[in-house]
Amino acid sequence: MQKYSIHNEEKLKEILKENKFPPFRYNQIENAIYKNFVTDFDEIQTIPKDLRELLKANFFYTTLEIDTQKTSANGQTTKTLYKTETGEFIESVIMRHKTGRVTLCVSCQAGCPMACSFCATGKLWLLKNLETYEIVEQIIAAAKMLHEEESLSLRNIVYMGMGEPMLNYDNVAESIRVATTQKKLDLSNRRVTVSTCWIVPGIDKFTKDFPQTSLAVSLHSPNDEVRQSIMPVDHTYPLKDLMASLERYTKATNKRIFYEYIMINWVNDHPKLADELGQLLQWKLAHVNFIPYNAWEGTNSDGFTTTPKIIIDKFQKVLLDKYNVVSTVRMTMWDDIDAACGQLANKKEEEDKEEK
Ligand code: SAH
Fold first, then answer.
1. How far is the CA of 342 from the centre of ligand 1 (A)?
2. Whose CA, among 4, 83, 199, 200, lies 20 to 30 Å from 260?
3. What is the mean pLDDT of residues 306-320?
């Protein structure tokens, strides 16, 4: 018999109804799963035994298997490598900030079809879109671990792991709903950030469906020429289209957009680009996050290196002094476990590929 994920609310309600259980039983199950992080249906003591049996017969709780889990030397970052039931490897990363804030970075695809030249995940191509429950399971596993082992609450999620969220829109959307529904994980919408390298139709949909949820854009260059040299997606959606959909987003939501700008030596860090970037973003609700390029293990055929800090400082100064655009530099504190941006390409997939 086919089993469903316990996160499939519609199915759960339907099966409860079919079996003549009153609606409050649903609330008890929901409470056990999302508030008490129960992982075994037998542990839900608030419901009768026959209902527990019904759940066991019709639903599964988790499909992701932890393959490895590593915490960085400074204890701030934990990277978990999961194996899905279909055999792909995906990763999520917990980041504990000094302020006490905790952020989880989740994957939404195994691999990624975007093929940005600087990104390790892109080298895997797309292996599969993750199911809603595979995204939700990453979130719950992290929330449970933080709660039970460290008495910490997970309050922030970023869709900045493996994959392009706008290309797995429906499942990402459903996982955001689970994360932000009060009776489920109850995260504030603005503390959930979806990062995209800019798939325009996805953005327009996102604007309509999630006006409160935060948006980050992987910009990486203020002009098409440089952008196209590192991000093939720019051929399909050039900057003109990108900025137009941004205008629509800002108009509809009045929210600040986070622009990610990877800093690669000699590629996208020419001083004139600081001015171009300033001109592109001035008068807009914008915040730039500079990400020093992280070198990753394996064949980095483009031979990229990281922009020196002094040049990033100059970019920041130009943006602020000349164009009044605020920026920060993202820390790379979790380098020692290959969990930094763009390094999420598990070695197992690579090994598998090599064997073939
Ligand atoms: N596909 C989405 C989600 C991935 S987010 C997107 O493109 O936004 C991961 C972020 O890390 C993106 O901004 C990505 O461009 C950046 N990144 C990828 N490889 C990197 C690397 N080697 N060094 C630093 N940042 C990188």
1. 5
2. 83
3. 96
Please indicate whether residue 341 is annotated as part of the active site.
yes
Distance 125 CA to ligand 1 centre (A): 14
Contacts of 281 (CB under 8 A, 6+ apart): 259, 288, 319, 323, 325
Give, in degrees to the nearest 5, the angle at Cα 240 between 201 and 121. 60
Residue 258, both tokens: 């986070």
Give the phi and the psi of residue 23 in degrees, each rounded to 5: -55, -30
Instruction: Give Rg (Cα) of the chain.
Output: 21
Residues 42 and 89 in one domain: no
pLDDT in tens, 107-159: 999 999 999 999 888 788 899 999 999 999 999 999 999 999 999 999 999 99
pLDDT digits (tens, 9 = 90+) for 94-105: 999 888 899 999
Looking at the structure, tell me whether residues 74 and 155 fall in a common domain. Answer: yes
pTM of the model: 0.93
Annotation says 91 is catalytic: yes
Question: Are the C-beta atoms of 165 and 192 separated by less than 8 Å?
Answer: no
Looking up residue 34, the CATH number of its domain turns out to be 1.10.150.530
Q: Which of 85, 87, 57, 65 is nearest to 141 (CA)?
A: 65
Task: Provide the domain limits for residue 148.
Answer: 65-355
| Ligand 1 atom at minimum distance from 108 CA | 3
**Please, are residues 139 and 104 in contact by the beta-carbon 8 Å criterion?**
yes
Closest C-alpha to ligand 1, atom 12: 218
What is the dihedral sign for C-alpha 263, 265, 164, 124?
negative
Residue of 107, 158, 160, 168 to test ligand 1 pocket, by largest number of atoms within 8 Å of CB:
160
The protein residue whose alpha carbon is closest to atom 4 in ligand 1 is 160
Nearest CA to ligand 1 atom 17: 342
